[in-house]
């Protein structure tokens, strides 16, 4: 099967790491829990995208180490994004409960992945397409089928919380237009391969999140003038 190196994850990773660094700086300055949650989420975003890049067959190819790191970070980051949104819009007691849910499911996923390292599939036995993003999805379902339900729950709940929370921020205060970028960014994971493909949607989402973040800083600076 002929692959062409897919460099989309490279751009996703760079943007995510820069974003995480800016969020960490903001957290150090202001000590807000939502900033810490988003710092962790964007760090995981960058790591998972880097693993995707390295899994290009002409780089390091699919292997159990890269795939395990990718799977854990790519799933957990959605939960931390949702937790960050909750810390921003609701009381901390509710947010603490949701964070506990994210941590528990992430731990279950971590343990489940570790227990399955010996069961990494023979790639020749799978119906791979030659598309990096789609083949990652195929391997995910085959390799970690025993913990896939936890992935679905964590990603679905985390994504929904982020989507609803960011939309609520805008509805509550229409001047906070930057929240719409988080809303639109949160929609992309639910679209699967539409419109830009699995990897393209990841890149589009982090770009929208980053634009929303920059606009939120400009908004806050304007409010403080």
TrEMBL record:
Transmembrane segments: 6-24, 36-55, 67-90, 97-115, 147-170, 177-197, 203-220
Keywords from the UniProt entry: Membrane, Transmembrane, Transmembrane helix
Name used for this protein in its record: Histidine kinase N-terminal 7TM region domain-containing protein
Keyword match Transmembrane helix: yes
């Amino acid at each position: 099967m002929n692959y062409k190196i897919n460099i989309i994850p490279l751009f996703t990773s760079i943007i995510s790491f820069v974003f995480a660094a800016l969020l960490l700086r903001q957290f150090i300055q202001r000590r807000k829990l939502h900033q810490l949650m988003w710092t962790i989420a964007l760090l995981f975003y960058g790591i998972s995208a880097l693993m995707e890049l390295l899994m290009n067959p002409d780089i390091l190819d699919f292997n159990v180490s890269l795939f395990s790191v990718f799977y854990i970070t790519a799933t957990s980051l959605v939960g931390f994004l949702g937790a960050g949104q909750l810390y921003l819009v609701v009381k901390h007691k509710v947010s603490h409960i949701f964070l506990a849910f994210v941590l528990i499911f992430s731990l279950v996923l971590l343990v489940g992945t570790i227990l399955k390292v010996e069961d990494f599939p023979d790639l020749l036995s799978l119906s791979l397409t030659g598309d990096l993003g789609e083949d990652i999805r195929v391997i995910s379902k085959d390799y970690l089928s025993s913990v896939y339900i936890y992935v679905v729950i964590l990603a679905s709940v985390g994504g929904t919380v982020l989507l609803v929370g960011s939309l609520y921020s805008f509805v509550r205060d229409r001047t906070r237009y930057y929240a719409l970028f988080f809303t639109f960014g949160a929609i992309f994971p639910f679209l699967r391969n539409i419109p830009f493909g699995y990897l393209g949607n990841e890149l589009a989402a982090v770009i929208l999140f980053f634009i929303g973040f920059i606009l939120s800083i400009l908004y806050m600076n304007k409010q403080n003038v």
